[in-house]
Design goal:
alpha/beta; Glutaredoxin; five-stranded mixed sheet; 4 helices; 39% helix
Length: 108
Amino acid sequence: MSGNIIEIDDAAFENEVIKSSLPVMVDFWAPWCGPCRAIAPTIEALEQTYSGKIKFVKVNVDENPQSPTKYGIQAIPTLIFFKNGQIVEQITGMVAKAKLEQAMDALL
Protein backbone atom coordinates (compact mmCIF):
# COMPACT_ATOMS: atom_id res chain seq x y z
CA MET A 1 0.00 0.00 0.00
CA SER A 2 1.31 3.42 -0.85
CA GLY A 3 2.26 6.25 1.45
CA ASN A 4 -0.82 8.14 2.46
CA ILE A 5 -3.67 5.65 2.38
CA ILE A 6 -4.74 5.27 5.99
CA GLU A 7 -6.23 2.06 7.41
CA ILE A 8 -8.89 3.08 9.92
CA ASP A 9 -11.26 1.26 12.24
CA ASP A 10 -14.81 2.04 13.33
CA ALA A 11 -13.54 4.03 16.32
CA ALA A 12 -11.50 6.37 14.10
CA PHE A 13 -14.16 6.86 11.42
CA GLU A 14 -15.76 9.97 12.92
CA ASN A 15 -12.43 11.79 13.36
CA GLU A 16 -10.73 10.67 10.16
CA VAL A 17 -13.70 10.96 7.79
CA ILE A 18 -16.64 12.96 9.14
CA LYS A 19 -14.52 15.65 10.83
CA SER A 20 -11.83 15.80 8.13
CA SER A 21 -11.03 19.24 6.75
CA LEU A 22 -10.15 17.57 3.44
CA PRO A 23 -12.61 15.63 1.27
CA VAL A 24 -12.24 11.89 1.93
CA MET A 25 -12.48 8.77 -0.20
CA VAL A 26 -13.31 5.72 1.92
CA ASP A 27 -12.54 2.30 0.44
CA PHE A 28 -14.67 -0.40 2.10
CA TRP A 29 -12.85 -3.66 1.37
CA ALA A 30 -11.78 -7.08 2.67
CA PRO A 31 -8.58 -9.10 2.15
CA TRP A 32 -10.47 -12.03 0.56
CA CYS A 33 -12.22 -9.81 -1.99
CA GLY A 34 -10.68 -10.20 -5.47
CA PRO A 35 -12.15 -7.01 -6.98
CA CYS A 36 -10.97 -5.09 -3.89
CA ARG A 37 -7.41 -6.23 -4.54
CA ALA A 38 -7.81 -5.55 -8.27
CA ILE A 39 -8.89 -1.93 -7.77
CA ALA A 40 -6.21 -1.20 -5.13
CA PRO A 41 -3.46 -0.17 -7.62
CA THR A 42 -5.88 2.29 -9.26
CA ILE A 43 -6.69 3.81 -5.87
CA GLU A 44 -2.98 4.02 -5.05
CA ALA A 45 -2.33 5.83 -8.35
CA LEU A 46 -5.16 8.27 -7.61
CA GLU A 47 -3.75 8.86 -4.15
CA GLN A 48 -0.49 9.97 -5.77
CA THR A 49 -2.38 12.35 -8.07
CA TYR A 50 -4.68 13.84 -5.43
CA SER A 51 -2.28 13.73 -2.48
CA GLY A 52 -2.80 16.73 -0.20
CA LYS A 53 -6.19 17.50 -1.75
CA ILE A 54 -8.16 14.38 -0.85
CA LYS A 55 -7.64 12.02 2.09
CA PHE A 56 -7.70 8.30 1.26
CA VAL A 57 -8.80 5.78 3.88
CA LYS A 58 -9.53 2.06 3.88
CA VAL A 59 -11.96 0.22 6.15
CA ASN A 60 -11.70 -3.58 6.44
CA VAL A 61 -15.38 -4.60 6.60
CA ASP A 62 -14.60 -7.90 8.36
CA GLU A 63 -12.81 -6.21 11.25
CA ASN A 64 -15.05 -3.13 11.41
CA PRO A 65 -18.73 -4.00 10.97
CA GLN A 66 -20.21 -0.75 12.33
CA SER A 67 -19.22 1.67 9.55
CA PRO A 68 -20.31 -0.57 6.63
CA THR A 69 -23.63 -1.23 8.41
CA LYS A 70 -24.16 2.48 9.08
CA TYR A 71 -23.60 3.32 5.40
CA GLY A 72 -25.55 0.36 4.02
CA ILE A 73 -22.62 -1.34 2.32
CA GLN A 74 -24.06 -4.39 0.52
CA ALA A 75 -21.12 -5.28 -1.70
CA ILE A 76 -17.40 -4.58 -1.81
CA PRO A 77 -15.42 -2.82 -2.99
CA THR A 78 -17.55 0.21 -2.25
CA LEU A 79 -15.97 3.66 -2.39
CA ILE A 80 -17.76 6.48 -0.62
CA PHE A 81 -16.70 10.08 -1.18
CA PHE A 82 -17.27 12.48 1.70
CA LYS A 83 -17.04 16.27 1.76
CA ASN A 84 -17.67 18.22 4.96
CA GLY A 85 -18.91 15.00 6.58
CA GLN A 86 -21.56 14.43 3.89
CA ILE A 87 -21.69 11.70 1.25
CA VAL A 88 -21.15 13.20 -2.19
CA GLU A 89 -20.80 10.02 -4.25
CA GLN A 90 -20.84 6.25 -3.80
CA ILE A 91 -19.35 3.78 -6.28
CA THR A 92 -19.60 0.00 -5.92
CA GLY A 93 -17.55 -2.60 -7.77
CA MET A 94 -14.72 -2.45 -10.27
CA VAL A 95 -14.93 0.75 -12.27
CA ALA A 96 -12.68 2.54 -14.73
CA LYS A 97 -10.08 4.94 -13.39
CA ALA A 98 -11.76 7.75 -15.36
CA LYS A 99 -15.00 7.27 -13.39
CA LEU A 100 -13.07 7.54 -10.13
CA GLU A 101 -11.30 10.65 -11.39
CA GLN A 102 -14.66 12.26 -12.14
CA ALA A 103 -15.79 11.55 -8.58
CA MET A 104 -12.52 12.98 -7.20
CA ASP A 105 -12.79 16.13 -9.30
CA ALA A 106 -16.37 16.61 -8.10
CA LEU A 107 -15.05 16.68 -4.52
CA LEU A 108 -12.64 19.52 -5.21
